[in-house]
């Protein structure tokens, strides 16, 4: 079957409120999608007449030596499709890309169990919008175009904390499924199609991470901005590994939510995540990311050892987070930008920050470290900067600011000359900060036109339209 090229993208995310709390089903998180996206383009791998290949080539051309070649085979006993990295090619990296490898295996396994489609060779290109990485190694850091050559190996790239792995797994899985399945087998514009994509992306992302996380990042990649309550971890506990006996059937049951005893129970409320007109959620890159997994372990250990103290503090944080969402909703209903009063919104954010710092001190984890407190306070002294937080797990990732449009020039002026002192727990300090060119994005996964990647795709067919997979 002659399949057209496919191009899909998924947004980044910022957990504006609900860091750590979102790990618990008793609590929720307010997550906004970001208009920085991970893009995945798939087309049939061109071959000479009479030549049959069983190879899938994945490239990330913005980075040095970022090519992975995979062989694949369907295992016995409904164990799914195993993929094996083919090494020894001079053009291919020898290191593994666990997120790509896992997403590919899960997507192909699902294709094998729901379709008679022959899995043919393919070329897959991954492209990231500029602001996913601190591009100090780039030959051009002024962001003249949507995509830049970061000019470093992927292992040396500094992430800005926008949720690249979840966006990658979501866009990658969606593109592979769309490439191999007929339109009637997976309609991503439909509610059921989105739900199936969400389920398989959550399963693949958790398998690649080696743990079952909260899933808010994958939910934002699929659905966009929302208030999110996590799924029960037991839903994914029994999926097992690719190649194990019956893996395909277990994966199919999880993806299609057909196990009546273990139904997907996450809650995603898109209507509750809004941003008032004239107010933007902006991100400042501090080029000094944290290890959120280690931080989370310490916070959860503190919570386990201090249940009464933690319960009180988390209840107060949940109340503050809910008030933040309500205040954004209230302000969004206003008609006149001039008459909007953001004072209460700013006070709500200050209360949340105070509670976060209290938890940070008690758990001995730098959720809002002093260097970030100083940066946030400096930004918030500018008129029109309503408030800001160190989002998600905190640490030294990019900070999030709520900024009125008219305050943007003053904020940019501050950040051009802003520096920090040494000795605040991040080596030499965070150094120079940079306002990222991103803001909130309400839309989740979407189809793209393939021709926007023309300069990055090897083996052409890149001019074809990706509009064969319309998404609402």
Textual characterization of the structure:
It is a single chain. This protein is α+β, with helices and mostly antiparallel strands. Helices cover 33% and strands 19% of the residues. It has eleven helices and 16 strands. It has helices spanning 98-114, 164-180, 191-209, 216-223, 234-237, 247-255, 292-305, 307-332, 343-363, 370-380, 408-417; strands at residues 6-17, 29-44, 55-59, 67-74, 81-85, 122-128, 133-134, 158-159, 226-229, 267-269, 279-285, 385-389, 399-404, 434-435, 440-441, 446-447. The strands form three sheets. Strands 1, 2, 3, 4, 5, 6, 9, 10, 15 and 16 form a ten-stranded mixed sheet that branches. The longest helix has 26 residues, at 307-332. It is globular and about 60 Å long. The chain starts with 5 loop residues before the first strand and ends in a 25-residue tail after the last strand. Mean pLDDT is 88; it is low at 136-143 and 460-470.
